């Protein structure tokens, strides 16, 4: 299934009119059937709080125009009975984003979804360069609750290589007691994959707000990922 995220000259011009350096972030939300109930309800609630914190809190005013967010989930095709990655929110600054609403159904094509996220990030960086837009190191946050139902070899290799070259920071969490944490660990060279309880999901989004705020206040040439990763280790207790 091909995801469409091409851009045109008008979009590049519009984006270039925003003088803020961008912080590209992709959130992958597991919306498989195993997330149904408390997990998906909590995720929806915390994502809504995250959007409110960015857009309504005057302390984070700069983030409305610098945080460039995309959200991916899964979509179940009733005809083929397959589950595919889907773009829930395409890249845009938070000023123009709508709060996503997740429904849980289908399987967990995490490999395909990570590949789609990386493709989107590469395309977005191309747009930044064409528009002369400065940007910080991209971040990928993976929130899942079980094992991938597809092959993750290619996706994990791409994510690992980008991370090692300091072109991407990946932060994976697994919600609940199911699933093998080692699968998520394959997406990052840092030993930071965490197993958390459903009630710990607020910590993930509090950390994300704090992290993008730190990035926005740092020099474009300064690698702040070490500090953010330390915060992740300290805050997310699994």
UniProtKB/TrEMBL annotation:
Pfam (any one): VWA
SUPFAM superfamilies: vWA-like
Residues annotated as domain VWFA: 24-212
Source organism, top-level taxon: Bacteria
Protein name, as recorded: Uncharacterized conserved protein YegL, contains vWA domain of TerY type
Annotated source species: Cetobacterium ceti
């Amino acid at each position: 299934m091909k995801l469409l995220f091409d851009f045109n000259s008008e979009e590049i011009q519009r984006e270039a009119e925003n003088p803020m350096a961008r912080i590209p972030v992709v959130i992958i939300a597991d919306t498989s059937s195993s997330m149904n109930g408390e997990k998906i309800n909590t995720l929806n609630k915390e994502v809504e709080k995250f959007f409110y914190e960015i857009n309504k809190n005057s302390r984070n005013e700069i983030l409305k125009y610098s945080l460039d967010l995309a959200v991916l989930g899964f979509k179940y095709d009733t005809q083929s009975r397959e589950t595919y990655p889907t773009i829930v929110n395409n890249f845009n600054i938070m000023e123009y984003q709508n709060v996503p609403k997740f429904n849980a159904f289908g399987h967990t094509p995490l490999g395909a979804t990570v590949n789609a996220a990386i493709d989107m990030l590469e395309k977005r960086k191309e747009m930044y360069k064409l528009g002369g837009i400065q940007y910080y190191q991209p971040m990928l946050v993976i929130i899942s609750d079980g094992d991938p139902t597809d092959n993750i070899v290619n996706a994990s290799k791409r994510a690992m290589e980008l991370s090692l070259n300091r072109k991407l920071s990946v932060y994976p969490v697994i919600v609940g007691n199911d699933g093998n944490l080692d699968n998520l660990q394959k997406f990052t060279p840092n030993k930071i994959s965490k197993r958390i309880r459903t009630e710990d999901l607020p910590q993930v989004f509090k950390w994300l707000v704090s992290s993008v705020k730190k990035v926005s206040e740092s020099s474009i040439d300064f690698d702040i990922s070490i500090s953010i990763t330390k915060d992740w280790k300290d805050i997310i207790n699994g």
